[in-house]
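Sequence in, structure out. Go.
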Amino acid sequence: MPESMPKITVVIPAYNIESLVEKCVTSVAEQDYPKDKLEIIVVDDGSTDSTGAICDELSSKYENVTALHKENGGSSSARNLGMKHATGDYIGFVDSDDYVDPRMYRVLAEAAVKFDADMVQISRDEISEDGTRLPDVVIPPTGIMGISSGEQLKKLLLHTGDASFCTKITRKSVFAEDLRFPEGELNEDFRLMIDVLPRVNKLIILPEQYYHVFYRLGSNSRKKAEDKDYFPSVFTDIVRNADVALDIVKEKYKNLVPIAERFGYYQRLDYLLHIPVSKMTKDNLFYMGVVKYVRKNILSIITNKYLTRKNKAYLCILAPAPRLVRSLHAAFRGL
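Output:
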């Protein structure tokens, strides 16, 4: 392997994940990549179980693993602390309930050097709690693909791209000192990604599915079926971030405005289809704002060529009386 290969820092936030964190960190520590070129920072985000102790044990076991400990502040704050301590040329992230293939960072680094790319993405698969393979959320390319930042933003707005930083390495200089994960929010990868992309010279997408997502019920954005009134904050965050994306598009990618508008309508539809009926009340100002936005833009929704007929139909049906429609639908399904 050439000496010119870049140093990579991998940041792993960990919170109360004692049963999975060792598998995750070990999968990164035992990469087919020089140890002196791979820095691993595990950030214990104020865990109350044995996660912190396991992180310390892993730091003692592997010379390139560092364990940091902080008060609980959420995944974004843990990632940001890791970034602060990162010394690599590129930065990657792994969620502590996921794991990676031993070849992942070597393949990513080789592509980064070959194509002089600010960002390189590996493909991913999804594994359920019982170990079965789930359908691909993002379809891998058939071969190596290089796209511009604008093309990647278009893919994200059409829900065909991968916004996760976990499947990527990104040149550290792209983040500079001012771009970090938003703290106290979910959908944080998308939020940071739309800020980062205008600074990225190109994105290389690789077909190998070397990042393994462990689909664990009960994690931040995954709803348990029995919690009928539980409403993850991710559904409000995706609406807010859609508006941020539209502002960025209007400023820097004007040709994508209709697609960004479609994205905002779709995210609001997602919100209206998931919010519990019990929370669809007039004193819920965010909910009322979503309803008013859909009603105000109903003509634009109908004429937007990037929305499917089904999307348009749902929005048109929900717009006049969303609570009534959702209540009737629930009664029809016997919920």
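Check: Residues 149 and 198 are 6 Å apart (CA to CA). The first helix runs from residue 21 to 29.
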